[in-house]
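Supplementary Methods S3. Complex input for the adenosine-5'-diphosphate-bound model.
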Amino acid sequence: MLTMESPIQYVKGVGEKRAQLFQRLGIATVGDLLTHYPRQYEDWTIITRLSEVVPDTPCCIKARALAKPTEHLIRKGLSLYRFHASDGSGVMQVTLFNNKYTAARIEAGQEYLFFGTVSGSFRRPEMSSPLIEPAQTGARIRPIYPLTEGLTSRYIEKTVATALLALDQQLDADALPPELRQQYGLCTRRYALENIHFPADQQALSTARNRLVFEELLTLQLGLLRLKGRGKAQNAARLTEDYTAEFCSLLPFTMTGAQQRAAADCLRDMQGETPMNRLLQGDVGSGKTAVAACVAFCAIRGGYQCAMMAPTEILAEQHYHSLSRLFELHGGITVGLLTGSMKKSEKDKVLCGVRDGTIQLVVGTHALLSDTVQFASLGLVITDEQHRFGVRQRAILAGKGQDPHLLVMSATPIPRTLALMIYGDLDISILNELPPGRTPISTYAIGTDKRERAYGYIKKHLDEGRQAYIVCSLVEEGETDLVSAEAYAEKLAKGPFSQYTLGLLHGKMKARDKEQVMRDFSENRVSILVATTVVEVGVDVPNAVLMVIENAERFGLAQLHQLRGRVGRGQYASSCILISDAQNPEARHRLKVMCDTTDGFKIADEDLKQRGPGDFFGDRQHGLPELKIADLLCDTSPLRAAQEAARSLYQQDPSLSSPAHRLLSQSVRDLFDRVGENGLN
Ligand code: ADP
Ligand code: MG
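Predicted complex, serialized as structure tokens:
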């Protein structure tokens, strides 16, 4: 008996060889096949009259063949078949190439449906290689499937039909219980599967789609709720006092209203029944670090240790320096640094301090995740630029304490709906206000012919005591960033900027050298930092006012926005210069968006529009399970409905263990299995 779990080759007519082709589409089982939803549909029920045809638009013509096709041998191996067909409003010529099979089935006087585009003049319309079906049986909505070489859409269609028939009663096993379907006006699974592949009409198609979208979003929400539920332990590091005021007296500036609100959210969490589990979202430069410092300060004053994890060594070091300055001088709090490239003896010293509790705040990279890192009393875990980490890494670090508080920070501005999906297991605070006194960043997109002028502009600012970044990516296919950044820096140092000090920063340098260059730059001993995208996240040097990006077309919007966020951090007016000769419309559009706005949320929306949610987070930032039918951007109202349904289901049956929820529970597991190693963000 065929089941949803049966290997695809057991479907009649598939066999081993075709099964391999199906594998390429990610289809291993019958269930996979049925969720290989059509990419679009051809509607053969809407008939266009020849007299009303719109040029170059696919349509369906219902016409009678006036004669059997005639064969014309064009050259060896190429035959044409031609015939005329009439629909009463006009007569068109139909041409088939090398298609003896179809031509042989056309009978004079019979009526057929022709699907394709009509070309030729209005008087003498023509159709080349249309799809042809007998008029009596062909009038339906036909699915078009995502393809791979060797499998046609028609073949997939036939296989789906065979499978649906063979599954028979099993299609009645429905993951959505009847009450739920009724409450949200959803059709059965059988109806949905039959009509998503072979819609009876447009209405049936939309009913089917609604149900499948809802089910997928519900599954996702249930999985996220389960993740969130896991965090609901007892608050083991409960704070009783609020040291925010003391912290503020250490700061060289006053926190913005948004920073104060975010810090208050965190304090409220840490004083509550359950541990804090919060996302702090704020555009680049909004001042997330100060909030994190405040929260860390309060936890430490309350008697706990704090760990802060950053995705790069440069960033970890920067946090270490600024926090130790802030805390050690004024607050008497001991801060340690732990990164992978430190000498063993240095590391051991820090590990020791962390273990015996003399180091109260440890800042580090992934090195913090190592087994050798043990805490005396870890009460708070902070991750900076969270989109670079997965849930599992966050969990490993948290596992080093007894249900410590979690604060995760992210500068990737994510549209709210998407944030709820991805970070559904977290509470959210948003910094929607920049610190005062910032002058807006002006952005210019220029061609390489204006590069010399840009150099002049840079010099003018350097002469006023400011600093600049120049970012270059791989220059040519096959070149490593090491070669190109180095070569480029050398060219600059010998040529236009021979009067200035240049620093070079790229990913392949030794950590110690990186740190040295970064320190030289932040203490203004280096005027120009030539770098690869390693400066993308977090780096904070307020005296740097120019960001020049070579080959700007190679970067995505999110990345350009992050890079630009390195300037405009202090009192001086800043600019960003995007150098590119690219002509392709998408790249031009990206550059235009950058010139038009500095609003991270607008840019994120544009980014999503261009790339779609699947690519939005890039490789590293990827975290959501891949969805097969729901579109997180467009399906916002089913999303809300699914969230509501998930919450109420979760309340009734948190572990989804009742028999009515068995299939749903299985779907949740399946969906989250696909997320893979990184887990959810
Ligand atoms: P991000 O949110 O990108 O991590 P940072 O925390 O690096 O931003 O802060 C950006 C800059 O703004 C830093 O130089 C920081 O000292 C400064 N800053 C943060 N908050 C304030 C404030 N309330 N007033 C003035 N400057 C601030
Ligand atoms: Mg930051």
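The first strand starts at residue 40 and ends at 43. The two ends are 40 Å apart (CA to CA).
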